[in-house]
Every structure is written in structure tokens, then in C-alpha cells.
Amino acid sequence: MTDIRVRFAPSPTGYLHVGGARTAIFNWLFARATGGKFLVRIEDTDPLRSRGELAQVILDGLKWLGLESDEQILYQSDRKDRFVEVAHELVKRGFAYYDFTTIEELERMRAESQARGEASFRFKSDLALVRAGAEERIQRGESYAVRFSAPPDGIAWNDLVHGDVAYKGDELEDFVLLRSDGSPTYHLSVVCDDHDMRISHVLRGDDHISNTPKQIALYRAMEWEVPQFGHVPLILGQDKKRLSKRTGATSVGEFQEKGFLPQALFNFLTLLGWSPGKGDREIFTRNELVQVFSVEGIQPKSAVFDEAKLEWMNGEHLRLLPDGDAVDYLLVHSDNPAVTRERLLAAWPLIKPRTRMPNTLYSEQPYLFDDPGEYDPKGVEKHLAASDVLVRLRDFVNDLATVTFEAAPLEAALRERCEVWGVKAGVLIHPIRLGITGKTVSPGLFELMELLGRDTVVRRLNRLLKEHLLA
Ligand code: GLU
């Protein structure tokens, strides 16, 4: 078997789309699972875009996901001379020709094709005709493009994801290799690069499937070994259309900012379009994925991006971390001075089972760090209405001055009080929860009281009493 060498070849657009990230992950996993190499190439042939900054955002995203190139990163713009050389070689070999068609002529041909009712315009020339006189026209200084002559018999290949794919001769057009300004096109560059980088498998998005017959034709014309191709289906949004900014976040940077763990996004994207085949296990570390990954598991059908599921997965990965690491991660995502490492460490056992995301932790359980602002009006109505509730609460707050501030003695003290009064424990539990959290639901109340400590609990309950008892 030849050495497995795969690549991720983004164009520097200034952001790393999650679809691209998933393509990179599949390539990386394939390389790791087979002992091969994962390479990164920046396809920066568009002269209008600056190479450095835009590419850097993509490289940062890849790094954050742990997807770094095993060899030096190749920048396509460095290799123009090589592409030009190959284009002329293809002319010499009789597979490509100099094309002197002007823009006006091209427009006229397009219009005529439309008038004939053709679905799409395909440029085709008779090789023998276009070759005649070409040298003289070049000598005369006429500008020209270099076009590849589409193979009349079509192209077929066995796709790693879709199985047999075939394009008939009349579905292919003579495509440009070098534009009239001398710049190489994507098809030429990508094939030269993949060949020179000794890429064995090209795994990329479905949007490239119609490019593949053209590229295979180029390999054959150059008598280069054709890599295996696999086309990964698109990721869809909740609206079942191609995932776009309209329906939510699409770039890796946005997910990073929202506070997702890279290993959670990695796990999530891998399962979006790939399946381990058996069982319903969903949580995998990167190393576990390397163990079970195979290209055969890539699904030919598009998958739908479900951010709620990603949040759930984030919680699962958070719980896999050592406690100190989980706390450090949560800490990074808050700028509230009350959110300290010490406080988070103390709270962690209580909140660990349910925490999914830093932002929801801070928005749903602010009382872990700050006194509540307002009390849930429904809770006030339900739990403070009875005439004796606040008086009983005041008595219990007095008891709190002496009780040992740990969950078990706190619970015992509360239950004893209620028993003496002959009322249910809820008579105190609900108002206390409302007073210390502002909410009607919280983690275990006595554990929470222990965590917050005597001073905080007494201060918060006195405020509730002040606002309601004296009102
Ligand atoms: N640069 C192309 C893109 O960003 C990918 C080319 C390829 O994978 O062959 O879509």
C-alpha cells in the first residue's frame, strides 16, 4: 500500500467554516488511523486577498482543534511558475491548447447557447482547428488563455463516499488552465500541488464533486498517479438548507468565543456525517476517535447541525476533565470579579452534573457568585403568601447564627423546626431557596447553603425579610 498522505486545502477567506473544519478532522483522523501524514496547504491564488492575515485565522482555528500540519505548510501562491510550466507541458502533450477567444466572443457564444435552450454553456473546441496557426498568433502578440481539452469519453471514478460516479463526455467542457493574464486556475494548481505533495487520498466537500472529473483528466494527461477521491456531504442548518450565518454560528472562531471546548466541537463534528457503525455511543475523545475511525463510516447523506446537541456534548466533555481543568476553563469565560477560582472549585461538585456551557452557568446560576437581584415573582406569590411564612423564616434565620454550617446539620435544624411547628419542611425550604437564589429551582438547597456560607445566607435571607416582612 502506498503511504497515506492527505491534505486540507482551505482558501484564505478569513474564517474557518465548521464544514471545512469537519473536512480537516476527517483527513486528520484518516491520517492518524492509518499512520499517514496530514498536510495543510493554503490556496491563496486569488491576488485580491492578502495572504497572511486571512490564512492566519484559519490556521488558528485548526490549531485550536489540534489539527496541525505534519509538514511545512504550503502556500499555493509560491508555486505559480510550476503551474505555468505544467500548463505548457499539457499543450506540448496535445491535451491543451492556446485559446484566443476574446471576452466579447465568449459572451456571444454564451448568448447563442442560451438561445438554443441549453441548460448550461460548455466551451468546446476542435483541437485540430484551434491548434492551427496558434504559434503565429502568439508571435503577433495576441493574448491567449490555455485551455484543457475535455476528454470526449468522459471520466468515471470510485468515490470513497459515494461509490461509482461518472461524467459523460458531453457533460465536460474545455476548461481554462491559464487565464489570459497568465494566472493559473484552481484546477491546474490543485492537481499540481496534490501531485507534488504526493497526496494519496483527496477527501473534501461535496461542492467539489463536479471538479473531480476535470482534475482526474489532468492527472491522466500528465501520466501522474491519480489519488483516490472521497466527497463529504454538506452540513445542513436546522432549516435543512446549507448551514449559513442566517441560522446560526458557522465559523470555528464563533464556537470558540461562545465557550465550547475544542474536544467537544471535534467530537460533535466527527459524528456529523460519520458513524462508528455499531452501538449508540456518542462521546469520544480524540484518541478514541483515532482508534475507531474509518473512511467507510463517512455517510453519503447530509447531516443537520444541532447546536443544542453540541451544548450537551460540551457538558459531557467538561465532566471528563480533571476538576481543576474544568474550573480553569469556566474561569476563562467570565469577567465577573466575584467568579474566582476558589469559589468555582468549591461550587464544582454541586454544579458538575448539569453544567454544559460557561455562559449558561453564569446566566442561570448567578447566585453562586452574587446576591440575587430580583425574586422570581411566581415564587413570591406561591411561597411567601401565607401570613405566617415570613415570621417563621425570621425565627429560622435566628437559628442559623448557631447551627453548624454544613448540609446535614442545616437540614436537621430545619426539619426539627418544622416538626415543632407541625408544618411541612417545604414551608421553609421554598422561601429560603427564593431568598438565596431569587429562583424557584436550584441544586440541593442544604449543599448550596453550605457552599455559600453563613454570612452570605443570613445576609440574603435578611434582605428578603426586609423587603417582604416589613413591606
Ligand atoms: N481550496 C478549496 C476550498 O477551500 C479546496 C480545494 C480542494 O480541497 O481540492 O474549497
What descriptive keywords fit this protein?
about 475 residues; mainly alpha; Rossmann fold; Glutamyl-tRNA Synthetase, domain 3; Arc Repressor Mutant, subunit A; three-stranded parallel sheet; three-stranded antiparallel sheet; 21 helices; 12 strands; binds glutamic acid
Q: How does this model look, in words?
A:
With 471 residues, the chain is mainly alpha-helical. It has 3 domains: 1-70 and 233-306, HUPs (Rossmann fold, 3-Layer(aba) Sandwich); 80-186, Glutamyl-tRNA Synthetase, domain 3 (Alpha-Beta Complex), CATH 3.90.800; 371-468, Arc Repressor Mutant, subunit A. It contains 21 helices and 12 strands. It has helices spanning 18-34, 51-64, 80-92, 103-115, 127-131, 134-139, 186-196, 212-221, 252-258, 262-271, 286-292, 307-320, 323-332, 341-351, 358-364, 377-383, 389-399, 407-421, 426-437, 445-452, 454-468; strands at residues 5-8, 37-42, 74-75, 96-99, 145-148, 155-159, 163-167, 175-178, 201-205, 228-232, 235-236, 303-304. A 3-stranded parallel beta sheet has the order 1-2-3. A 3-stranded antiparallel beta sheet has the order 4-5-8. A two-stranded antiparallel sheet has the order 6-7. Helix 1 links the parallel strand 1 (5-8) and strand 2. The protein starts with a strand and ends with a helix. The relative contact order is 0.09. The model has no long low-confidence stretch (mean pLDDT 94). Bound molecules: glutamic acid. Glutamic acid (GLU) binds at residues 9-11, 43, 190, 204, 208. Glutamic acid is lined by residues 9-11, 43, 190, 204, 208.
